[in-house]
C-alpha cells in the first residue's frame, strides 16, 4: 500500500512542479505541446520498445490481452445504444461522443500512469495496437461520411498508421521478443535512458498545460459529455474486470489491466474533432474532465487491487 501511495504522490508532485514552472513563467507558452511532441516521437517509443522487447510476446496475443479490446468495443457500443435511443444523441455528436468513451490517452498520460504505478507498460500493448490499426481508421471513415470531408483516402490512412512511432515501437519490440534477437548494449542503453525520461516529461507537460486551462461548462452537449465520462472512467475498467474475472486473472495483472481500462480520453480526440469541425467543445471538455476523474479512479483501482 505504501509503495502505491508513494508512486501516486510522485505523479501528483511532478504535475505540480510543471504547473508551478508555468505559473511562475519559467517556461514559455506552448512548452507542454513541445514536450508531448517530444515524448510521442522519441521517449515513449523508446519506452514501449524496451518493455515489449523484454516482455513475453504471448502476453500480447493471449486471451487476457484482449480484455481491454473487449472493453473498448463494449463502451463504444454502450455509448451508441444509450446515446442514440435514450438520450437522442445523433450525427457527429454521437461519433465524437463514442470516441471520448473508447479512444484512450494510452500514448501519453496513460502509459505514464501505468509505468509510475506498476513499472511495466506491457499491459497497454494490445489496446495500443487496436486503437491505431482498427479504431482510428474506422472513426475517420465514419466522420468522413458524416461531414463530407475526405481525410485522404485509404492509402493516406495506411501511411499515417504505418508511420506512427508507437505502432513501429510495438511491432519492432514484438519481433525482437519473438525472434529473440539480442540488442547490442550501444543501442539498448540510450533507448533505456530515453524511455526512463518519458514519465516525468509527460507529467511535467500535464502540469504546464493546467496554466490557463479552459474550465468545462455544461452546455447543450451535457448529456453526451456526461455519458462519455461515465463510459470512459467507470465503464472501461468495469468491463475489463467483467471480462478478466472468468479467465482467473488476479493480483497485479488484474490491476494493470484495469488501470489501462481507466485511462482518460486521448488528447487526439480533440485534434480529430478540430480536423472535422465536429463537436470540438465536447471533445475538449471530455479530455480535461476524464484526465482528473481517471486519476482518482486509477488510485482507487491501485489501492483495492494491489493485494487482490
UniProtKB/TrEMBL annotation:
Q: Where in the cell is it found?
A: Cell membrane
Please tell me whether the keyword Cell inner membrane is annotated for this protein.
no
Coiled-coil intervals: none
User: Which Pfam family, any one of them, does this sequence belong to?
Assistant: Mem_trans
**Which keywords does the record carry?**
Cell membrane, Membrane, Transmembrane, Transmembrane helix, Transport
- Provide the membrane topology annotation: Multi-pass membrane protein
GO cellular component term of the entry, any: plasma membrane
GO annotation (BP), single: transmembrane transport
Q: Which residues cross the membrane?
A: 6-22, 34-52, 58-82, 94-117, 123-145, 166-187, 193-210, 222-242, 254-274, 286-305
Major location (coarse): membrane
Does Membrane appear among the keywords?
A: yes
InterPro entries per UniProt = Mem_transp_PIN-like, Na+/solute_symporter_sf
| UniProt xrefs under PANTHER family | AUXIN EFFLUX CARRIER FAMILY PROTEIN, TRANSPORTER AUXIN EFFLUX CARRIER EC FAMILY
Family to which the UniProt record says this protein belongs: Belongs to the auxin efflux carrier (TC 2.A.69) family.
Question: What is the protein name stated in its UniProt record?
Answer: AEC family transporter
Q: What is the lineage of its organism?
A: Bacteria, Bacillati, Actinomycetota, Actinomycetes, Actinomycetales
Amino acid at each position: 500500500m505504501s509503495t502505491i501511495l508513494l508512486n501516486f504522490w510522485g505523479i501528483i508532485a511532478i504535475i505540480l512542479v510543471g504547473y508551478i514552472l508555468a505559473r511562475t513563467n519559467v517556461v514559455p507558452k506552448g512548452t507542454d505541446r513541445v514536450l508531448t511532441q517530444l515524448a510521442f516521437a522519441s521517449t515513449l517509443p523508446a519506452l514501449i520498445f524496451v518493455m515489449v522487447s523484454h516482455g513475453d510476446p504471448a502476453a500480447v496475443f493471449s486471451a487476457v490481452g484482449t480484455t481491454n479490446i473487449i472493453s473498448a468495443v463494449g463502451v463504444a457500443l454502450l455509448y451508441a445504444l444509450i446515446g442514440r435511443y435514450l438520450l437522442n444523441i445523433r450525427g457527429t455528436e454521437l461519433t465524437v461522443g463514442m470516441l471520448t468513451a473508447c479512444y484512450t490517452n494510452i500514448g501519453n498520460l496513460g502509459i505514464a500512469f501505468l509505468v509510475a504505478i506498476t513499472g511495466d507498460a506491457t499491459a497497454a500493448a494490445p489496446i495500443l495496437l487496436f486503437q491505431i490499426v482498427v479504431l482510428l481508421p474506422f472513426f475517420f471513415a465514419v466522420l468522413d461520411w458524416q461531414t463530407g470531408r475526405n481525410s485522404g483516402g485509404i492509402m493516406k490512412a495506411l501511411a499515417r498508421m504505418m508511420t506512427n512511432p508507437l505502432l513501429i515501437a510495438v511491432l519492432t519490440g514484438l519481433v525482437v521478443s519473438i525472434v529473440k534477437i539480442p540488442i547490442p548494449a550501444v543501442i539498448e542503453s540510450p533507448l533505456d535512458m530515453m524511455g526512463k525520461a518519458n514519465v516525468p516529461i509527460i507529467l511535467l507537460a500535464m502540469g504546464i498545460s493546467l496554466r490557463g486551462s479552459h474550465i468545462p461548462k455544461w452546455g447543450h452537449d451535457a448529456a453526451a459529455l456526461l455519458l462519455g465520462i461515465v463510459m470512459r472512467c467507470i465503464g472501461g475498467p468495469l468491463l475489463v474486470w467483467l471480462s478478466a474475472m472468468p479467465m482467473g486473472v488476479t493480483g497485479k495483472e488484474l490491476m494493470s489491466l484495469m488501470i489501462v481500462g481507466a485511462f482518460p480520453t486521448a488528447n487526439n480526440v480533440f485534434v480529430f474533432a478540430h480536423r472535422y469541425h465536429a463537436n470540438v467543445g465536447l471533445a475538449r471538455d471530455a479530455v480535461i474532465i476524464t484526465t482528473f476523474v481517471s486519476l482518482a479512479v486509477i488510485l482507487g483501482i491501485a489501492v483495492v487491487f494491489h493485494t487482490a
